Give the backbone structure.
Amino acid sequence: MFAFFEHPRLRGGVHTEERKQHTSRIPINTAFPTPKKLYIPVQQHVGKPAEPLVKVGESVLKGQLLAYSQGAISAPVHAPTSGVIADVRDFPAPHPSALPVRTIILESDGLDAWEELHPPADPFALEPEEICLRVGAAGVVGLGGAVFPSAVKLNLGRKNQIRTLLINGGECEPYLTCDDRMMQERAAEIIDGVRLMLRGMLAERAIIGIEDNKPEAIRAMRAASLEYSFISVETVPARYPMGWDRQMLRYLTGQEIPADARATDIGVVVHNVSTAYAVYQAVTHAKPLISRVITVSGAAVGKPQNVEAPIGTLMSEILAFCDTDSRKTARIVMGGPMMGDALPHAETPVVKACNGILALTEAEIDPKPVQACIRCSACVTVCPAGLLPLEMANRIRVNQLDSAVDIGLKDCISCGSCSYACPSNIPLTHYFKFALGELVKRQQAEHKSEQTKRLMDERNQRLERIRLEAEAEAQRAQEARAARLAAQKAAAAAKQETTV
Amino acid sequence: MSAKTLGNKIISGPHVGAPLQTYQIMRQVVWALLPACGVGVFLFGWPALYLLGVTVASALLVEAACLKLRGLPVLPTLNDGSALVTGLLTAMTLPPWAPWWIGVTGSAIAIALGKQVYGGLGQNLFNPAMLARVALLISFPIEMTRWTNIEPLFTGPGLAESWRITFGGQEISDAMTGATTLGLVKTGFSLNQTLPNLLADHSNWLSFLGWERGSLGETSSLVLFITGIGLWRKNIIQWHAPGSLLGTVFILALIGHLLNPGRYLDPWTHLNSGALILIAFFIATDYVTSPNTPLGQMIFGAGCGVLIYIIRAWGGYPEGSGFAILLMNAVTPLIDHYIKPRIYGRYRNGKPLDISH
């Protein structure tokens, strides 16, 4: 019983209102017309931004490499359609700040002509290294939201001799159904992607975890994986944040990843279902990641649905395609409503990380006034990481950030469960994000002042050295003069002696 | 859609709201307290109703006055319902025929000294209602231990006479009062009597239903138990504190009773007497003054149980619930300091887990 208290399979979490029913039963809309202009940021992943290798005015074909991967952790970007490079300049990023980032602007020629592709004859006969190479070259990144370059993870998995590949089909965020639809419609391709990943990592088995609120997806995935005994499809309870990879891993395997380690350290690699599909496309058809399925939903959207759109499409065009009423829109969110980012406007492009665009009305957001904390500890109950949100917020409020770190601030995953459950509407997650940002800022300032101090010290040492050298020089000169004088004196004395 | 800007304020997720608001929680607690209040009014007649009214009204007034003095908006805070809960709980712990000024003083102590001086809702160290109960018991021992006989509504004093009892300072004759079970036992022991004699005409089943002398809202274990379980089922309170509190008292009473049945009350009488059930479900579960982890709440409950049993069995007062709660309230920050949930991927001491394949 004690063990149960200490190591529960499932801890915390909230039952959110799902609001998935508007989009989960409608097939993915693949008829989205190619936009006239595409805005492709060179950084759509964790790591170093890609370096553009096309020039303004150059014609490109669909799938052609636009910017190449730089460094060990990076990913390339490709042309989502054929056309002409109109510009390479700064453009608002899909981020709460909408600050400009380096973006390749591609003007479509309307032909949508592919470059010549070289798919392998038998993708499953490829060497593991070759699979990873192809995944990396296709610009595949984690499509669940973390956008970590997939090839890096596959290589890491092979080097660490991992045993289990966990495929995350949780999709626990309310509204979002893109993974659900992918599993329902493209199960066979996803399973092929999983098999390729297993081969790429030389891993033995794969577990696919799907929340129990997606029975159709579970059925489709079970049917597609029937002939592969090393792939099992498991049902997990629908409770946010089930899609947190560490939560799902603990639920399915009972293993817990140590706080200072990665999943690979305990023999597991976690990938998203959509990533598996992208891997399949990259290896089997040699097609780079240039489009993705996006859930467009929210009460301001007239025709909520899943849309497959090219990377670089302006969100405003996708919202218009789904008959969104801009007057009713109170907030535009990229991603799900729990962890997604509120964007200041929709004139910003779709990137690889974008799994949803929500146009929420005032009634859906329903902002309520912040009230006093009554220590009800609802936040403690729902925290999947086992933290004390109320206590951390108290310390952050009085600017004791270090003492907030002492009780686990850095273990916070910003899942938003505490803010969601708080009956006094205290924006707990906002406090934590602020504090983590502030800590980074302080660290940088500290680093800077240390640098300055080091430079100062060096300068002082240098000056001291110069002074000492000058002194030594002066002494030497004096000694030389004294010696010269003595010599003169001696010479004069000798002269006198000789004259006398 | 045009290039419409939705403001530059950075808003962090989640972008959807909480299902349950503070005032709704308080309202649920009020609903859960009302049946027990109803039982009290039924058993002890109109004076009980008057006392309940005057205590709750003065709680709200004192809260309003304090908010005004602190320069805070009065109505929105009053609407959170916390003063109403405190007023009700204070009234429920008073002798049903206590004069009006006991109720008013109790409310003033609870709200002003018990809550507002600390900074209002969520800031207080001690449970306001228990603070008032203990302060009154020490300051006015006679009024606070005058337990009237059961005079069910419409059989006892009428509206006018009841008015004089509560507001007119009318003396209550000794014939109309008696002792509570715990009081009877305590005084009986000082006269060297043993339990079987003392409890000759005590019925455990009647006291379970609430048919016994006692505080306004504490007599009916049955009603309090049902409403308390209701709150637990609605996820307003957790089971840890009440469970460990009642369990501790039960186990200690069982041990004592088995060792010496003539000296120590049986567990069933303990559970049905005094404020135990009210305390367990409605006071030990007070969010503000109890620990915020399940294990901490269990320790809190067990501590209350031990203290209650010690005071009842060997202390100077027949009932120890109020003292026990205040003492455990005082150690709540300590419990919260030492009992923390285990963080994912770490041992309890905060060190990362060892890597094991």
Observations:
- The mean pLDDT of chain B is 91.
- Chain B touches chain A through 52 residues (CB under 8 Å).
